[in-house]
Amino acid sequence: MGGKTNQSYAVAVPQPIRALVAPVLLTSLLLPVLQLMRPQLEQRLKTVCVETGASGNAALAAKLEGPCAQLARPTSQCLVQETADSGRSLAILGEMVRGDFGADSEVVVKRCLARMLGLPADSLQAVPLKELAQGFAKTRR
Predict the structure, then answer these.
(1) Which of 17, 79, 94, 120 has the most beta carbons within 10 angstroms of its beta carbon?
(2) Nearest-CA neighbor of 121 among 111, 132, 131?
(3) 7 within some domain
(4) 140: part of which helix (H) or strand (E)?
(5) Does 31 reside within a domain?
(6) What is the pLDDT of residues 60-94, one digit of tens each?
(7) What is the torsional sign of CA 121, 126, 129, 134?
(8) Is 135 part of a structural domain of the chain?
(9) What is the DSSP letter of 45?
């Protein structure tokens, strides 16, 4: 029996193809990390929802726990999926580590908001996030 050698063959991949494939591979590697962080994001969204909605009213806060939890789950799922789909996973993880809400996070929030409203993903990108928040605040009054 002849000795069998393990040979590896390197394939030269042209730079344009590497540039196209690298973000997909990176996203697929980071998606599990994002999914692991989703329960914490969901809890934070629920907390913000309850605190904002109750404005210090304990009885109202107790009533908002369930509805806010129901809203937080699909919102956190959407944010994780849009982060992966946008190709901005690494940048957003960096923003999260720094405790920053930067341009990449803003893009993902707008994409998720558009998706949850049934709009095309990039339809809200030209609208400043502050204007979107003010518009939703006006509907509460």
Answers:
(1) 79
(2) 111
(3) no
(4) helix 129-140
(5) no
(6) 999 999 999 998 899 888 888 888 887 788 888 78
(7) negative
(8) yes
(9) H
Tokens of 124: 């809200």
CB-CB contact of 112 with 67 (8 Å): no
Ranges assigned E (strand) in 44-137: none
| Global model pTM greater than 0.70 | no
- 104-131 pLDDT, tens digit per residue, is 888 888 898 899 889 998 899 898 888 8
Query: Cα separation of 129 and 111, whole Å?
Result: 11
Residue 4 lies in a domain: no
In angstroms, rounded to a whole number, what is the distance separating the alpha carbons of residues 140 and 80?
27
DSSP helix/strand/coil, 119: coil
Number of domain units in the chain: 1
Query: Would you give the distance in Å from CA 121 to the centre of its chain?
Result: 13
Residue 88 structural domain: 37-140
DSSP labels, 45-89? HHHHHHHHHHTT-HHHHHHHHHHHHHHHHHHHHHHHHHHHHHT-H
Nearest to 89 by CA among 76, 105, 77, 75: 105
